[in-house]
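Thread: sanity check for a docking pose with 400

Original post by kr_44:
Hi all, I'm comparing my docking run against an independent structure prediction. Below are the sequence and the ligand SMILES. Could someone generate the full complex and paste the structure tokens? I mainly care about where the ligand ends up relative to the chain.
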Amino acid sequence: DPHEWSLSRFEMGRYLGNGKFGHVYLARERESKFIVALKVISKRQLNLCQLTGSLTREVEILSHLRHPNIIGFYGFFQTQKRVYLMLEWAPLGDLYGLMKKQTNRRFSEEMASKIIYQITMAIGYMHQMNVIHRDLKPENILCFHNEIFKIADFGWSVHTPSNRRKTLCGTLDYLCPEMINYQFHDNRVDVWTIGVLAYELVVGRPPFESNNEQDTKKKIMNLMFQFPNWCSKDFLNFVKGILQHDCNKRPSIIQILNHPWITK
Ligand SMILES: CC[C@@H](NC(=O)c1cc2[nH]nc(NC(=O)c3ccc(N4CCN(C)CC4)cc3)c2s1)c1ccccc1
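Reply from moderator J.T.:
Ran it for you. Here is the predicted complex with 400 included:
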């Protein structure tokens, strides 16, 4: 581009919302009139929480990922105090807001299945690029016209070494299962979240929801969740297949995409 990106090249629009370490605004590039979502992150807050690394990783990851169900990233610029990410504009807001507007504040199984299909395609692409998202939830999925949905906010994503498991210590041979669960992230964490997301979109609340963290953790560790009686057999089978403690028993991305609840 003829000259550097800077804030002066944009007309700032309305405030759209906020996330962990920043806010997002609508903005229009003056010459081209191109609309973007400008994500503004304060460096001070990042430094305070030693999270500059996660922003660098987010920019690094976003600039390498290109997929129809991952939010577009056009570049970034910074001032003394802030970093600005130029992101694709999603006109219908996030999936959490859209879900709350549905009848009974939840989606039909048919609609939820379409959403899960698109998100799973994006996750599968990310895993091929050795990236795990780690923070999949309705608030981090943005909505477009024609029932298109895209993953946003890679603030907690990391690169995984391809197929090798990252542990903090020693070889896997001597680690007991619960230690393993807490000692490394591999891309099956995203598979688990696809199951949680599917449940929330269809039922209207997450499977292990409780009013305090301990109870939620207890429900997760003991796999305590039920389905309302109106859920289909395929749906029960889909979610139960994914929400398994032993990550080796969880389906692969391909198996998820070929499940009857997705393909029918
Ligand atoms: C997903 C969180 C993440 N967000 C992004 O990266 C985001 C990137 C990006 N692109 N377009 C967006 N659109 C909106 O935020 C939006 C919000 C509400 C809207 N409506 C309200 C309801 N109305 C009926 C229709 C219009 C429409 C668009 C967002 S958010 C983030 C993370 C950290 C800091 C800031 C933002």
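The first helix runs from residue 43 to 48. Hope that helps with the comparison, let us know if your pose agrees.
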